[in-house]
Amino acid sequence: MPIIQVQNLTKRYPLANNPAESFCAVQSVAFEIERGEVFGILGPNGAGKTTTLEMLEGLCDIDEGQAFVDEICVNTDPYAVKRIIGVQLQANEYFDQLSLLELLELFAALYGLSADPLALLAKVDLEEKANAKPEALSGGQKQRFSIACALVSEPKVLFLDEPTTGLDPQAKHNLWDLVRELNDGGMTIVLTTHNMEEAELLCQRIAIMDHGEIVAEGSPADLIALHAPEPRHVAQHGNIEDVFLTLTGHGLRD
Amino acid sequence: MRFPLQLTKVFLKTFLRDRQSMFFSLVFPLSLMVVFGFINRGGGDALDLGVVDQAANELSQEFITALVGNPLLEVVLGDEAALRESLIEGQVSAILILPENFEPDPELDGADIRVIVDASQVRQQAIIVSVLQQALLTIEREYRGTQALFKLAVEDVQARVQSYLDFLLPGIIAFTLMQISIAGSGFNIVEYRRKGILKRLFVTPITPAEFITAIVSARLFLCLAQLSVLLAIAILALDVTVVGSLVSLYSVIILGSVLFLCIGFSLGSLAKTQQAVQAIGNIVIFPQMFLSGIFFPIQAMPEFIQPIATLLPLSFVASALREIATNGMALTGILPDLLGIAVWLAIGFVLATRYFVWKEVAG
Q1: What ipTM does this complex have?
Q2: Does domain B43-156 bear CATH number 3.20.20.30?
Q3: Where are the domains of chain B?
Q4: Has this prediction a pTM greater than 0.80?
Q5: Measured in whole angstroms, how far is the alpha carbon of residue A51 from the centre of its chain?
Q6: Is the predicted pLDDT of residue B94 greater than 80, yes or no?
Q7: Rounded distance between C-alpha atoms, residue A111 and residue B206, angstroms
Q8: B21 at the A interface (CB within 8 A)?
Q9: Under an 8 A CB cutoff, do A85 and B203 touch?
Q10: pLDDT in tens, A92-130
Q11: Which residues of B touch A91 (CB under 8 A)?
Q12: Cβ separation of B207 and A83 shorter than 8 Å?
């Protein structure tokens, strides 16, 4: 039984210049994610990656279709879903006045739990920053702290929205190590990314989205075999970046 | 819904650590009180009266003592030339010249006392002349040994001394609670939304109702604490009198705070940026500051504004607080004000819950 099942997921937004019309941010998206998998959603800006995640997280309403997380229906029981997922959002700002320890205590309390904030900080290698304020953290530290916050409830599924965007190579590799470590512990991880290397290295399976639809899905190796450009007679060639650009084109996105 | 104690504590902690805004939310109303209290000090009412004592005898001394004892007058002694100059410059309102023959001799004709006035100040002239005549009459009776037939005792209708600060304090409390509450809910919400904190909170199992309860409880607690400090300083340091019961006073303060917290939430939903919420906040705050009878009674305003002014939410709160603080009214005695507050509370609550954007919070 897959831990995440998504069927026909659709999200419409009214057009800014004509509220009577709407455009589909996400259109009839369907996929399944197995327990213990690292699943990557790739796509250019505006492809619908974040919207898809937000529908799964219960942050925005599902206009059409259904989503299940661990057999709980997101449409009808979003609060039960929120209890078993951990979320790291693109924006990672917090209450300015609180220290990392206090913030972790807060997040635990929001789940009605009492966590061990120091152990969580140790897990993401931020023990020495326990009494610092979030604004004093570097970009990589902020992302790791976001993940620590997402882990307070020991979630079954961890959602990471562009976790390495804007990080330097060291911080990026450090974060990948953390993701692998969590996954080795059995946690299912769903992440969105622009970074092809990241998708190729971390993800067991990938879905590539464009214009609100999934255009390809499979393991990195399968996708390379299927979609990477010539020469076709060589069994394995190119990389996921080739696949991505072949499928979504070279046009710049906003 | 469980009461979100932990989240309430967190909000309290973050608000309390925002030292700057804590400081200014108290300094502003306090400086207003001090400044306005100073401007309206009772001393402004006394008339300065220059006195030239050419007689310099026992009677003139007694007469001058009687004048000094009169609360309506501030007596300035000096010679005629200097006092004339003061009169022209407006430092004294009139000059009284006691002639050399100012003596208690019933056999002689009464001495002529000259009064030099600035004719442009007619109102003051009338007061001075009547005060002088009263003083002269008293002394004359004493010397002639007659008793006064009538005595005039002037009593204040309020039957107690009320200063301008007593009038001002409830208004300042109302204004301060409005400002703290609107800023505390609306401004915070927009900030949380902009930073993505709202979104982050709502991927945890917390419900919007719990979130609102937490932020309202924290703000309310803080608001009561801040107003208590203001009240204590006003009573202890500025000598302001609160006549009515503190329980009634705090009940109205709580109602008013919740009312403006709701309005703040509505503004926070209406405005998408910090600049916008401040602009809209000022549109709500400043007209009320001047129209709601904070610094002077609504009755003193132009007639056509009065009906609108009395219906403003802050007017109801200020009026209710004032009735309790200065007139000692019980809650049952201010039902119209409470009704007004209730109506605005209902409007605010509907707007806040209806337009507050929970999902798809801009990120």
Answers
A1: 0.85
A2: no
A3: 2-39+163-355, 43-156
A4: no
A5: 11
A6: yes
A7: 7
A8: no
A9: yes
A10: 788 888 999 999 999 998 898 888 999 999 989 999 999
A11: 195-196, 199-200, 363
A12: no
* Subunit contact A60:B360, Cβ cutoff 8 A: yes
- Do residues B21 and B188 lie in contact, with contact meaning Cβ atoms separated by under 8 Å? no
Structure tokens at B136: 């002269």
Rounded alpha-carbon distances, angstroms, from residue A15 to A24, A65, A172: 10, 21, 36
Which tens digit of pLDDT belongs to each residue from A197-248? 899 999 999 999 999 999 999 999 888 888 877 665 666 678 888 888 888 8
SS3 A218: strand
B chain contacts of residue A190, beta-carbon cutoff 8 Å: none
Of residues B169 and B72, more confidence is placed in B169
Q: Given an 8 Å threshold on Cβ–Cβ distance, is A98 in contact with B14?
A: yes
Q: By CA distance, what is B357's nearest residue in A?
A: A60
Q: Tell me the per-residue pLDDT of B106-154, one tens digit each, with 9 for 90 and over.
A: 566 667 788 887 766 666 677 777 777 877 777 777 777 777 666 666 5
Long-range (24+ apart) CB contacts under 8 A made by A165-170 are: A165/A90, A165/A193, A165/A194, A165/A195, A166/A139, A167/A139, A167/A140, A167/A143, A168/A139, A168/A140, A170/A140
Tally C-beta pairs within 8 A across A and B: 74
